[in-house]
Each structure stands twice: as C-alpha cells, then as structure tokens.
Amino acid sequence: MAVISNATILEKYLNLDQRGSVQAEYIWIDGFNQLRSKTKTLFKVPTDVTELSEWNYDGSSTGQAEGHDSDILLKPVAMFNDPFRGNDNKLILCETYNPDGTPHATNFRYSCKKAMDTYAHTKPWFGIEQEYMFMDPETNRPYGWPRNGYPEPQGKYYCGVGAGKIFGRDIVEAHYRACLFAGVNISGVNSEVAPGQFEYQVGPCEGIDMGDHLWIARYILERVAEDFAVGVTIHPKPVQGDWNGAGCHTNYSTEEMREEGGLAAIEKAIEKMSLKHFEHIAVYGEDNDQRLTGKHETGHIGAFSYGIANRGASIRIPRHVGKEGKGYMEDRRPASNIDPYRVTEIILESSLGP
Predict the structure, then answer these.
(1) Is residue 75 classed as helix, strand or coil in its secondary structure?
(2) How far apart, in Å, are the Cα atoms of 121 and each of 117, 214, 337?
C-alpha cells in the first residue's frame, strides 16, 4: 500500500516561519544497504559539515546491532540543500560508528575515504550511471505494466517519447530538479531499455564525492517517488525473462588517463583489474549473477573481457576515447544495488595498487 502526498495541505505548513531554526535530515546506510533518516533541529544555518554534532540511533531496528547494546553513532560527513523543505534546511549524510568510536562493519565509506586520500595525487574521477525501475505498490509489478500479462517487447522504450512508451516521467523530472537544488552533481537522465526503467548519471565526481553524491541522489529519488506513491527498486534483475537488468556502470579515470597518450594508462589499469575480476564481482552487488549472463548488453559474470565500444564486455573503452587516445574507461560489471564506496575503492586500489 502507498499513499500519495497531499501537496496542497502540506504546503501551508511548509510555508510557516521557522523562526530562525533549521531542520537537518540525518541520513545513513543501514544493515541492508538501504537508507534511513531522521530529523534534528538546529538553531543556526550550518555553513560546513564540521559544525554539525554527532547523533545516534537504535541499531537493533536497522540490522546493525543487538537489542542489549543498540546505540550506533552518526557522524556527519557531507551536507546538501534539502529540496523537500526548502529554505535553509539541510540533508546530512552520515557515517556509522560503534559506541567505542570504531567504524561500524557496514560503514564502507571509512575505508573508501582512506583509499581516496592515499591516491588523491592521481586525481581520480568517477561517474556512475544508476539504473532503476519504478514499481506499482498495489500490484508489485513494474509501474505502467498491465495487471495481467506483459507490455510490448523491448525496442521502443529506450529514450522513448510518448504515451505507451514512458511510465513515470513526472517522477524523473521531479527527481532531476530536486537533485540540482540539493547540489548533487547529477549530469543527465534517460529512459532505459525495459518499460518503467530509467537511469540517471552522477558525476564526474572526484574521490569520495562519488559515493556521497550517489547515495544522496538515491535518497532523493526514494523521497520523490514516495510523494507519488510509487516504489523504486534497484535490484539488478527486477523482472525475470527477456527484459534488461539494471546496472551501475562506473566510469573511471585518473589525471594520467585524461592527458595526451592516456590510453596506455587506461589499458595498463584494465590489465591490472582483470587479475582481480572475482574480487571485484564479490563487491559489485547482490544477485548480479542474474544480470551478468552475457545477454542484454552484459558480459558473463564468469569471464573478464574488454574492448572498444563493446557493450557486451566487462569493461568498455568508449569509441571516442580509442580515437583520441585519452579519456576514461567504463566498468559495466557493477549491479544497480552496489554500495558505490566499495566499488570506487576496489577500482582505485586494483588499478593503481601493487
């Protein structure tokens, strides 16, 4: 069941004077790789995340602690404008810590940040293409699909225009504008191959910003879809059969790769990454085997491959990169439900490490 937001009634309350106070929405990743949040009142507008205090929550209700010792600490690490409350209100992304001050086992940002700091001199850039599908909470089927049977086969939906091809464009547009207001580095959107499936791109972002911006973009999408009473799934194969799965293609480059002659550095990095294919697969998303079948524009999960302009490869070198001899690579293996901190960390370490 889902309930559509009543924007007209809500607006009269959101227009009330906050009397100098600020609502800060503390956001974190739970034990199921999903997002949680709660609100705290501040008495001045924060200008930097270092001004924000730590907080805590009940980890036994989020899959992160036992009931007898359930406090988990929240440490603010990134701040964005709040597109839902507007004004000076903020979205606060947090890391999770145990009561003794050590990073929680589900806090993958902590080790990712260390890796990004280690290789900061290489100026690593990332761009992630987040695919997802809208779901109808009443039928538990993709949004816009008939209650019984299936829509027309794939072919007319990718970057499509018109009724019968696009289901949920209002949500996509609302999400895009909300991300821009928040300060998320969203660079584009498009409808995808399966009906009801879409993609947004975040980046290029340098270092740890990639994970921060993607998680906030995900949070905003969930909140926007909530207003429309529509569900969102980032499962890599939400519908079995002859329908495309969903990925998080991850584009990556270092300063050396972006300079003249950088193709050699790209190929060297890919060669090093190929030696750790299965270590990558281990952190490239749950149920990714349902997606990486060698069909529907994927390489097979059991083998590594790369090529220029090859969307059936593990890693694709875009055609213009091959022609210009510099640029970036696209790792097509990550599933749509990845933790971007884990993915960007292993890409960086396996491509640049010993």
Answers:
(1) strand
(2) 8, 23, 29
What span, in angstroms and rounded, lies between the C-alpha atoms of 191 and 21? 39
Task: Name, in order, each residue with C-beta under 8 angstroms of 259's C-beta and a sequence gap of 6 or more.
Answer: 326
CB 320 within 8 A of CB 327: yes
Q: Would you state the structure tokens that stand for residue 101, as one six-digit string?
A: 């001050």
User: Is-contact 166 157, C-beta < 8 A?
Assistant: yes
Distance CA 258, CA 262 (A): 6
Q: What is the pLDDT of residues 73-115, one digit of tens each?
A: 999 999 999 999 999 999 999 999 999 999 999 999 999 999 9
pTM of the model: 0.97
Query: b/e per residue, 319-340, with b = 16+ CB within 10 A?
Result: eebeeeebbbbbbbbbbbbbbb
DSSP code of residue 156: S
Please state, in angstroms and rounded to a whole number, the distance separating the CA atoms of residues 341 and 338.
9
Q: Which bin fits 172, alpha (ψ -120 to 50), beta or left (φ > 0)?
A: alpha
Q: Which of 184, 163, 338, 326 is closest to 255 using CA atoms?
A: 326
Q: Tell me the C-alpha distance between 102 and 34, whole Å.
A: 21
Task: For residue 11, give the amino acid letter.
Answer: E
Strand 306-308 with 315-317, pairing = parallel
Residue 140, number of CB atoms within 10 A of its CB? 9
**Which amino acid, one-letter code, is at 73?**
L
Tokens 């990134």, residue located: 78
Bond preceding residue 151 cis, omega within 30 of 0:
no
